[in-house]
Amino acid sequence: MGFGVALAVAGAVAAAAFLWDSPGEQAQGGGDYAFVVGSPGPGEPAPDMVLPATDGSTFDLASFRGETVLLYFQEGLMCQPCWDQLTEIESRFSDLSALGVDRIATITTDPLDLLAQKAADEGLTTPVLADRDLAVSDSYSTTSFGMMGDGFNGHSFILVGPDGTILWRADYGGPPDHTMYLPVSSLLEDMRRGLDASP
Length: 199
Fold this sequence. Notes:
Blueprint: H1 3-20, E1 27-28, E2 35-36, E3 50-52, E4 58-60, E5 69-73, H2 80-91, H3 93-98, E6 103-108, H4 112-122, E7 128-130, H5 135-139, E8 156-160, E9 166-171, H6 184-197
Parallel strand pairs: 5-6, 6-7
Antiparallel strand pairs: 1-2, 3-4, 5-8, 8-9
């Protein structure tokens, strides 16, 4: 390997390390699936969210003050593991409820009509929200953690408390593994640890 090539490779590795471990995005250990914590993170206000849902309603996050809401940002129609993830989450909702979760919504950047068809095909009851202009996804920086470019979300979970403050966050979709599915048991354990560590 020539010196120039070696230097370029070293630079790329350093840049990747910087991006993956930049301020507000520290890698988390201890679980089976690595994740980082993007920004805004725990202790910060959750950005406003008003999006159309596949059930014909409009999902307004502010209207759920007094409840704890789990937001699941995912890649969307091209990511079957993301939908398998949601199916398992629905089947384990009682376990999430035991951690204080009252409500779940999932957010993608796909068209609402196609999402409605996908939700029907999968037999899902969770509201699927269409963020076509990426305004909400960008406000939560979830497009920074996928493998499809900055026009799509990665695989991010953000727990918003009754007062509108973020209680816990985990972004699983970034490099090097680009996790698009994790067992709900792992999700529950990571969430439990995060909540236990909160002040």
